[in-house]
């Protein structure tokens, strides 16, 4: 056993440059694979952290149409609803468009509905008492170095003008997986502004984008959703209600094809390195025909010699793969930095690590199949005649 | 070393009757061995000579069990090796044959000592026993100070002596050598031949050696000549 490992290791590094290049290729491939898989995970984590215990009600026609604010009391009256908050997309620009982050004009009970965002009562009251008050998530605060008391300006895109906000608190996620990249401010502030400007199509007063409700039991989500939508069926703006998770997955699904493409590319990279690796192994074994024939003459069986080749291949694949895997977490952090935190949660998941291990081992095993079969075919007498 | 046991002393180790071997290339048939009859005594040292292409290597390979004849009988210590399966033949070789090649055929990634240990892996030796045995035979060939050298750190003559050590470490019944001095200078060649002769005379190893070198025949007890696939003569030298 020790002997097999020793001879495999030595054989693996016979052609130092060739092996180092192969290792480099493996490392880069496994790294790229890991990063792409992490992108996919990060993409879906936004949606999967969303709750099934909250319902989102929006305009049945499209998200770009609003619902009247007076629906709120009617929703609250439906059986099973425990609390209703509302939110309106603001879409302001902080200094430069590339600084994009989500901003919502919300009702003051918004955090009561979102128990995954933690803010002390004291800060909450301070926020509610400031007309232009805003609260920001920890990830967002870290990104722009926002602090309590900061005054920040957003340039409105839907609602023209320069808007000033005063940060009254930084809320935390209830755990590490929570995305805290949003800013919330008072819907009343936004609405009083709209009431003061001439009527226009984009910004009508007393409207909200979505109502978010908590319900008594998530198992009743479907029934309660139906009840809400039935209630508004014949009103000016019919509604569409679904769980928050379904709502978020709907967003994500729009990009499903892109995600599928990324996934495919990640596996194509592994296939390419498999081809490279298989070629390296075939080449190394072909060059060793005479040695293998000699070992056969000495009485070594082809099965033993194939084992040597498999272990050599596996060894190379696992060394290269490990380098790539070790590089993945730091690269992920760097990736997050340079991409300006498009993905607030960008951590290499356990599943990704598992997939990397599986890919590296598969490459090792598959690359050795053809040369291992060739070992069975080498005839001693012919093999001894080959010149290397 | 086992040496010769008395019981085997007077029987022929290798018996060959009407051994034939041809190669087929398309329509063409090349008959390489045309009915060879030969006996090699236990404890013998036979030199096999003949012009290039006469079939020397082919015959040696058949005796060593790395090639199969078309017809004829070939027994080594009474075992008809032509009827063994590939796998049984491999096992038989590991126990009975020591190989010496013209170009040494050492494993470049293994040290001299590890190369010598290699065949012992097939014979259920403990790693400790393997090491001490390899050391012992390397001492026999005068390379006790080169145990940890890799083949490319040794001269041709030294490499061939490592190969000889590898051939005898399992204490095989028969040593086959195909032009063992073919790639060596005169001095190294003569060292290798002396070594083979010593193994034959002092330890009683049976050796069959293909050679082109007329000097080489001096170490041998018999010289047989092969020409166009037929044995020309079989004259005893050192009896
Ligand atoms: N695989 C093969 N296919 C066809 N013919 C072969 C094959 N191997 C050997 N031969 C033929 O068999 C004949 C004998 O070959 P062999 O290697 O036994 O010669 P040799 O006596 O050892 O010669 P040399 O002294 O040059 O080594 C040659 O004519 C050669 O062409
Ligand atoms: Mg020959």
Give a topology summary.
The complex is a heterodimer of chains A (388) and B (239).
Chain A: H1 2-12, H2 16-48, E1 54-59, E2 67-68, H3 71-76, E3 81-89, E4 103-106, H4 110-113, E5 117-118, H5 121-128, E6 133-137, H6 138-144, E7 151-155, E8 162-173, E9 183-186, H7 187-195, E10 207-208, E11 210-215, H8 221-231, E12 239-243, H9 244-253, H10 256-287, H11 289-298, H12 302-338, H13 350-377, H14 380-385
Parallel strand pairs in A: 4-9, 6-8
Antiparallel strand pairs in A: 1-11, 1-12, 2-10, 3-4, 3-11, 5-8, 6-9, 7-8
Chain B: E1 12-25, E2 28-41, E3 45-49, H1 56-63, E4 71-76, E5 79-80, H2 86-96, E6 97-100, H3 112-117, H4 127-140, H5 156-168, E7 174-178, H6 186-202, E8 206-210, E9 222-227, E10 230-236
Parallel strand pairs in B: 3-8, 3-9, 6-7, 7-8
Antiparallel strand pairs in B: 1-2, 1-4, 4-5, 9-10
Helix pairs in contact in B: 4-5, 5-6
The complex binds adenosine-5'-triphosphate and magnesium ion.
Number of extended strands of chain A:
12
Q: Provide the low-confidence segments of chain A as ranges.
A: none
How many domains of chain B, as an integer? 1
Query: Beta-strand level of the residues of chain B, as a percent range?
Result: 25-35%
The profile of the biggest β sheet of chain B is: 6 strands, mixed
Number of separate strands of chain B: 10
CATH architecture of chain B: 3-Layer(aba) Sandwich
Helix content of chain A: 40-55%
User: Any idea what the CATH superfamily of chain B is called?
Assistant: P-loop containing nucleotide triphosphate hydrolases
Shape of chain B: globular
- Note the main sheet of chain A: 10 strands, mixed
Summed over residues and divided by their number, the pLDDT of chain A gives a mean of 90
Helix content of chain B: 25-40%
What is the N-to-C succession of helices and strands of chain B? EEEHEEHEHHHEHEEE
Strand order of the largest sheet of chain B: 6-7-8-3-9-10
What's the overall average pLDDT of chain B, rounded?
90
Separation of the first and last Cα atoms of chain B? 25 Å
Q: Return the CATH topology of chain B.
A: Rossmann fold
Residue windows where pLDDT falls under 50 for at least 5 positions of chain B: 1-9, 235-239
